[in-house]
Amino acid sequence: MSREQLASKGKWRRLPFIADPTLRWGLAVGAVIYLVLALSTVDVNWARVAEGASRGLNFLAAFAQPDFISRRTDIVNGLLESLTMTLTSTVIGVALAIPVGLGAARNIAPWPVYLVCRGIITVSRTFQEIIIAILFVVMFGFGPLAGMITLAFATIGFMAKLLAEDIEDLDWRQVEAVRATGASWWQTMNHAVQPQVMPRLIGLSMYRLDINFRESAVIGIVGAGGIGATLNTSISRYEYDTSAAILLIIIAIVLLCEYSSSHVRRWTQ
Amino acid sequence: MPVSTTPQGQPAWRLRTTRAQWLGYLAWLAGISLFLLCWKLISDNTMWVFVEDAGRQGSNLIGRMLPPQWGYAHRLWKPMWDTLNIATLGTLLGIAMAFPVAFLAARNTTPHPLVRSVALVIIVSSRSINSLIWAMLLVTILGPGVLAGIIAIALRSIGFIGKLLYEAIEEIHPTPVEAISATGAGRLQVMSYGVLPQVMPAFAGISVYRWDINIRESTVLGLVGAGGIGLQLNAAINSLAWNQVSVIFLMIFVTVLVSEWISARVRHAII
Predict the structure, then answer these.
(1) Residues paired with residue B3 on neighbouring β-strands, in sequence order
(2) Distance (Å) of CA A142 to CA A75, A187, A229, B45
(3) Shared domain check, B94 and B42
(4) Which of A76, A152, B200, B268 could be cross-linked to A89 through a Cys-Cys bond (beta carbons 3.0 to 4.6 Å apart)?
(5) Residue B225: left if φ>0, alpha if ψ -120 to 50, beta else—which one?
(6) Alpha-carbon Rg of chain A, whole angstroms?
(7) Could you give the 3-state DSSP secondary structure of residue B15?
(8) Where in the numbering of this chain does the ABC transmembrane type-1 domain appear (chain A) (predicted)?
């Protein structure tokens, strides 16, 4: 009996999320087959897990009494490095992302430029920061410079993609109006495009600043400077109280970033 | 817009007052000084000798990566399958945990403001900590392997899915909720018939989007021992087998592009 007939008898059933029954059941069966296959290949060493359980409890306990003191200089140096890397890489990355973003917007860039810029964006977005960091550490040596270049490179892909999307759906009438006055390409960009995308660009830059800080905490693992190296050492030495302290600091800084960026965004809009 | 008068008595229009103009200049000066200060700190910690031959190192590296050792690819199918499993199972686990958290964190569905702040703390801590850090921790606790990777991905996904979902819940239309509560429905019934149908498309979209990000993140979890293709990557890098590294890079590149395409298609179909 169809749903409508049932409903007229007072036996109402809600509409399914996927309307097509073949697709719905196909997806369900496929999901079950996948789950069975996947779970059967995941081999877990339960003895090792049981052994580690006490360590897990130690780690949770460490959050109750984090140790900021005993590794103070390492933590401070690492954080300082992370913060400087974050700031410089965001500034450089955003500055470089603007031309790439302009080039990747279909409505203002010619085909060849568009393809090149989209290519840059794809490469930069596909690889994790940490993979790029490995390559740059080989090229530029250990230290925050490699980290900064990595984060700047990742920022280019992120910002340029969102900027290009923003430019692609901007209000074209304003551009036409400015062009009608006989404005050159630069003047059109400056007076018709830039005012429309600026608030969002500032908001996104603040957001990226926040992401870059979080990322700067991991690329230290492969030697690209920042707090990651300190964190990695403390975890592998089972000094969970120091790790907990570092994690708490990271959470606090991210919260601060988010709070201030929401203020900046409200102020620009 | 401020108006001042010129010596000839004509009104002159300007975009900003003198005060605002100077404040703007000062802000720029402060920003640029901060940037230069940071740059100085970085440059002090850099060995410029290494940077000078970066170009040579880079071309050397590319030279060693090419040609890729294609024969190595057939040993990568199992790690790649593991990587996909880490991402997919991790996302599923993350969704299962994020779903209740999001309902507790949304202003209009939370049972109590205190519960809401606890849920928000969970979301923020999960979001602030990268999945690689979660993986490092879990590897020391659970031992190396796929399980640590799955849980690391799940823990990181809670924050992402939770945040976007609770924002979606806060933006729902109140009228269906009111209509259903007017029939005398209980709290859970209101959730399931009033709130859930409205956020379902957003929820599915967010989950698929996170799955796509997780594929990208799970490719590197092996660097800290949490299973997947990252283990092979780590081994290849440590043994300086750069022609194997390039095979792995290509494989990651293709996988990520395919997953991004799938996720874009699915999101397009839903919304």
Answers:
(1) B13
(2) 18, 43, 11, 9
(3) no
(4) A152
(5) left
(6) 25
(7) coil
(8) 79-261
| Nearest chain B Cα distance for residue A166, angstroms | 18
Residues in chain B: 271
Nearest CA in chain B to A92: B35
* B62 part of a folded domain: no
**Would you call A128 and B257 a contact, using CB atoms and an 8 Å cutoff?**
no
Distance from CA of B128 to the nearest CA of A (A): 5
ipTM > 0.85 for the complex: no
Strand ranges (DSSP E) for A198-265? none
Which of B50, B147, B237 is closest, CB to CB, to A42? B147
Owner of token pair 């060693």: B64
Give me the CATH code for the A69-268 domain, please: 1.10.3720.10
Closest-CA residue to B104 (of B120, B93, B92, B91): B120
Assign A269 a pLDDT band (cuts: 50, 70, 90). low
B126 touches chain A (CB under 8 A): no
Residue ranges covered by each domain of chain A: 3-41, 69-268
Is A215–B217 a contact, with Cβ atoms under 8 angstroms apart? no
User: For residue B19, what are the domain limits?
Assistant: 3-48
List of residues 6+ apart from B128 with CB closer than 8 A: A214, A250, A251, A254, A255, B159
Considering only residues B94 and B49, tell me which one the structure prediction assigns the higher pLDDT.
B94
B214/B91 Cα distance (integer angstroms): 7
Q: Are residues B203 and B133 in the same domain?
A: yes
Q: Can you tell me whether residue B170 is helix, strand or coil? A: helix
Of B85, B89, B128, the CB nearest to A254: B128
Separation between Cα atoms, residue B72 and residue B75, nearest integer Å: 6
